[in-house]
Task: structure prediction
Amino acid sequence: MADQDKEMTEEVTGETTGETTEDMTEEMTKEMTGTDKITIIVHSGDLDKIYSALIIANGALAMGMEASLFFTFWGLMRLKKGGLDKGPLSKMNMLGLGRWMVLRRMRVAKVASLEKLLSDFKELEGKIIACEMTMEVMGIRKEDLRTDLIDEYGAVGTYVQEARGSAINLFI
Amino acid sequence: MAVVRLAEIKVDCRGQNCPVPLVETRKALKRAAPGDVVEVTGDHPASRKEIPMAVKALGLKLLEVEGEEGGEWRIRIRR
Result:
């Protein structure tokens, strides 16, 4: 056991020594930081929380990390055709009045639309996984979803495989 | 010998809010060829310090950060 640990440490240090930051190209940086990834479970379908998930994921991609979004339960509803910005506010929704006010203030503050954030996410090669169990439970068929955005359909095992190699894991 | 032409790509993020300047910078860098210069202009305060952080994380070269804090800034990056 101890030997194994030692071996692993040696492997890791062997991988990270060698190049100096100045010599590194973008590709090399990516290769060396293989676990430099963020995985987010998008469980909520609330408008503000979808914003949080996409802003964080896009920020991570922009900073050179990989990013995976696992859409499940109410979150998956937002991947239905025409559903992306249809969620309520998580607090002070007030039958849609609060939601309307927040959206208006966001427009004034020039906050990007969810549609732009999602399209940027895909352009920067972010990965989207749709939860199959949610599809079954909620009676969502593939043709109800925006399949052009979805890279993979999976269950908990798929999520765990993504998460185990991720430096950052969030549940939103 | 082939003539290598290095492009200068300009990105205007003035008036844009979080996370757009950061994301637009990354998109421009992704489209750029190695050696190209990406110049980003904006006025979102946090991006002035976060874009250089991203440049460092990507292992690229920060050429210049110009402009007062709290005002309009211009950042030049070599891909």
